[in-house]
Amino acid sequence: xxxxxxxxxxxxxxxxxxxxxxxxxxxxxxxxxxxxxxxxxxxxxxxxxxxxxxxxxxxxxxxxxxxxxxxxxxxxxxxxxxxxxxxxxxxxxxxxxxxxxxxxxxxxxxxxxxxxxxxxxxxxxxxxxxxxxxxxxxxxxxxxxxxxxxxxxxxxxxxxxxxxxxxxxxxxxxxxxxxxxxxxxxxxxxxxxxxxxxxxxxxxxxxxxxxxxxxxxxxxxxxxxxxxxxxxxxxxxxxxxxxxxxxxxxxxxxxxxxxxxxxxxxxxxxxxxxxxxxxxxxxxxxxxxxxxxxxxxxxxxxxxxxxxxxxxxxxxxxxxxxxxxxxxxxxx
Length: 332
Description:
Elements: E1 3-13, E2 18-20, H1 21-29, H2 36-42, E3 46-48, H3 57-72, E4 81-85, H4 96-103, E5 111-115, H5 121-135, E6 141-149, H6 159-162, E7 167-178, E8 183-191, E9 199-200, E10 222-223, H7 229-245, E11 253-258, H8 263-273, H9 284-287, H10 294-304, E12 313-320, E13 324-331
Parallel strand pairs: 4-5, 4-6, 11-12
Antiparallel strand pairs: 1-7, 2-3, 6-7, 8-13, 9-10, 12-13
């Protein structure tokens, strides 16, 4: 008998405030910078920005969790494990997963944890949770929710972050099904630490956050331009590895749900595989870049638009700070 870990349901939450490109074009024009070409390459039109007086990554995660439970017709008491994913958590302790458990009225013996693997976080969480569920007879369902407010910590002088990042959360429910061919299949990783010091949050390090000599700028995202060629090559390499190991070709894949950091890079990968662009759902034009949640926001769009049907193959991919890349193969 085969145990399948299926993606039962997915839901997206975003703040209500929309900010379009005009604001950022004017903002950087006043600094003597023209970022029109950058926004075109990244694929930005709009992005959702939270009310930072009232909303944080935890409140957004709770909203997304309640949405996905409602869509799945489940209650919090039917969830065996909760994983919260973020590189911008509201608290270091207690874990945000504890607060989510409280908000959804989870059961007392649920397993809860937080995870930070930067922009690959949600892919890693789904992969690790799937493998754990296969081996643990007591885990039937897992709620995984990624929530990011990268825009909150962006420097107003740095265009890639301030003009590109958006706020949002995405939640999925994994469910165990016996004797099923659908669900999680395989994953692959690639680590290249050459850029480990290029993208850092906070720039000064947590140990210096209380240092009164640190400026607000020191506490925001440090973002230095990095060469994306290796990230592009690792994408092709990882996807080819998954396909070869599982006797598939790109023609068998119905959706490539990728990080939404750069539309230009998505186009490059699409051209490398000579596949129809419709297989590559692009949502960064609407949501901005939402970090770890972005590949699953693309997945939600593929599902809600009818692009994906039960049994279709999906590849998820993302690369994070420090150039840790991850790809995952699922059969929806």
